[in-house]
Amino acid sequence: xxxxxxxxxxxxxxxxxxxxxxxxxxxxxxxxxxxxxxxxxxxxxxxxxxxxxxxxxxxxxxxxxxxxxxxxxxxxxxxxxxxxxxxxxxxxxxxxxxxxxxxxxxxxxxxxxxxxxxxxxxxxxxxxxxxxxxxxxxxxxxxxxxxxxxxxxxxxxxxxxxxxxxxxxxxxxxxxxxxxxxxxxxxxxxxxxxxxxxxxxxxxxxxxxxxxxxxxxxxxxxxxxxxxxxxxxxxxxxxxxxxxxxxxxxxxxxxxxxxxxxxxxxxxxxxxxxxxxxxxxxxxxxxxxxxxxxxxxxxxxxxxxxxxxxxxxxxxxxxxxxxxxxxxxxxxxxxxxxxxxxxxxxxxxxxxxxxxxxxxxxxxxxxxxxxxxxxxxxxxxxxxxxxxxxxxxxxxxxxxxxxxxxxxxxxxxxxxxxxxxxxxxxxxxxxxxxxxxxxxxxxxxxxxxxxxxxxxxxxxxxxxxxxxxxxxxxxxxxxxxxxxxxxxxxxxxxxxxxxx
Length: 500
Ligand code: HEM
Description:
Largest sheet: 4 strands, mixed
Structural class: alpha+beta
Order of helices and strands: HHHEEHHHHEHHHHHHHHHHEEEEHHHEE
Shape: globular
Radius of gyration: 25 Å
CATH class: Mainly Alpha
Helix content: 55-70%
CATH architecture: Orthogonal Bundle
Mean pLDDT: 88
Number of domains: 1
Number of strands: 9
Bound molecules: protoporphyrin IX containing FE
Low-confidence stretches: 1-5
């Protein structure tokens, strides 16, 4: 026994030393591939800066990197930002890359909502949501709802901060804005989180806790996060609380809306556009198609609306935040946007007020500026895929059902080969990958632009946002990114431009 111990110990030390220096000498960003534990230590070490970590590695390795996990961890992964692979996965061979059971396990909180499901149920969700969003009544509701939230929520808060002259977190304001707006639009319920006293609304902040926990589930072995969940500790504890906060908010809101609908004399025109009715029909269709689909219609509605609220709150608020940060760094762009607003909306010396969806489409330069912010800071920064059947990607990489593929959209927006030498600069033009592509491309793109343009135009035309100096700005290590410490700003009122 002694002999074995004495001979094994130096051998292990020798192995580790060899692996360490072999990888160290290359000065590569890639994590060291250790015996037994693979690259996991390097991955965990960089987990707090996951997007920069992926970018460092992928820019060094022609956009593809094979990650070797621990021997017994089932954690082999392919990181990619290769446009040919991404096009192949999202479009050309779409049917081989469903969200799949791994994704459903990680995102269990989203239940049977659109983000989390495949095949027939996904098609039912997609068809129902698309037809509702394309309805003329939806557009009217959207326009009314966004302006109502601007006039009753955003403007009074900005005016209060102008008067007080104190700094505040602009990201928090945008999160409250998008949360109230999407809740009013879908559930006809105004949580009023965007009030001057900035009340704490648990469901609103629960989205941050949910997003924070989910990336860790990608990074850590499943057994580890499951144990944390069972023990109700760490990020899993926050996730459990977030789940409770969603349920406590969404179920009563659904019941109230259903009661209202029952008591209301529905007019003919409203019957054509019945958000709740259409999703209930979708649920019945799903349960009738296959008897094994069991469930409860209230749970189905909870899942449906939670997914849409998540889609509507986080992506749009984070884009607005990065956009205003980039604008403060590029005052020329802000001036151009202000001039465009004045010319296209025919403003004289008055302050900007209401403009409609059609008019918002004339703000082309503003649109490009948002696209550029989305290129540099795509809200959905990572996408997770796994093939159903063994496959060979255009890059030549073999992927099996056990391989997790992590697509870094964040890296894709920073590749010199795609965007040129000035790829890290903010130069509004008209191309970007942020809404993905193929059959599962974002359904809310148009809605997001309408909303963001109305908010941005109101702020840019009437106010000036000043960054508080010396604040650290970085993206969170999460699937949907935001600013780690928020965006600290002050706001002053602007004098209307002289008409030309
Ligand atoms: C700047 C804002 C937005 C960005 C960058 C964005 C981006 C994306 C991306 C990348 C996906 C694909 C995700 C995946 O497959 O896992 C997606 C899906 C989706 N988005 Fe958006 N989104 C935005 C705003 C919105 C809004 C306001 C809504 C409206 C509620 C919305 C509704 C959806 C829906 C329903 C899907 C699921 C599509 C499907 O699986 O078929 N999005 N979005």
